[in-house]
Amino acid sequence: KSFYTYEVRTSDNVKLEVSGTIFWQIEDVRKMIVMTADPEGDVWARSRSILTSAISETDLGTFMNRAAELVQEAFENQTDDTFFSNRGLVLVNTEMTKYEPVDDHTKDTLESIIRTTVTRINELQKQRSKNDVQLEKLNADILLEKNKTVLIEVQAENSRILAQTAGATDGGKVASSIASFVHGLNQSLPNASDRVDLFKHHRILESTKADTSNLASGSASLYLAPKDLELRLSLPQTHDEL
To answer: What does the alpha-carbon distance between residue 203 and residue 198 come to, in Å, rounded to a whole number?
Structure first.
């Protein structure tokens, strides 16, 4: 392998210094001895010509974005070149490890561009991280609201079941009370309708007793309407004199 450092110019006339490594090997010793006394120098010079030609057709912006690819493509395009094969040599691979502007003004400009690019990348990364956090929070909030909905539905269903159970229990108690009362009078009142009427009368009396107890204890208020008292008001009639 051979190391290289070349000075080249881009299509927009920016002077650069590029450095890297050329990997090559001897394929035919006899050809090499006949054709050249300095195979490494020939590889170095030919590689310089290839790189200079490729970079001179590319502007600085494109070169900065595709530097490694451009170098690789430049040497891959030389597969039909007989320069190396005529000397018994094979160009295996090339690498560019470094490039920088030669003049200070361009160097400062590139450093400023790099700093701006790095800052922009960092800001984009921060924004992506912030967006990811907000997205996770939003997903968590959505999941929480869905869980609340499920909780409300379950609570409503439980309340319905409890109310249904309580109603069934109270209804069962009332039905049991009616059955006990009615069946207990089978012998004394054979007629079923009479027993039912007696039960209704019994419940009315219990209700009246409860109302009286509440009125007596002062825990209830009694409101009477005139129709309940059957009041009659007699007003004196007046005659207008002409």
So the answer is: 9
Is-contact 56 11, C-beta < 8 A? yes
d(CA 21, CA 140): 53
Instruction: Read off φ and ψ for residue 239, nearest 5 degrees.
Output: -115, 130
| Model confidence, pTM | 0.42
Q: Which residues of 134-164 are buried (b: 16+ CB within 10 A; e: fewer)?
A: eeeeeeeeeeeeeeeeeeeeeeeeeeeeeee
Task: List pLDDT tens digits, range 68-101.
Answer: 888 888 888 776 778 888 888 888 888 888 888 8
Cα separation, 212 vs 206, in Å, equals 10
Distance CA(74)–CA(124), nearest Å, equals 34
Comparing C-alpha atoms, which of 78, 61, 56, 66 is closest to residue 8? 56
**What token pair was written down for 86?**
């005529």
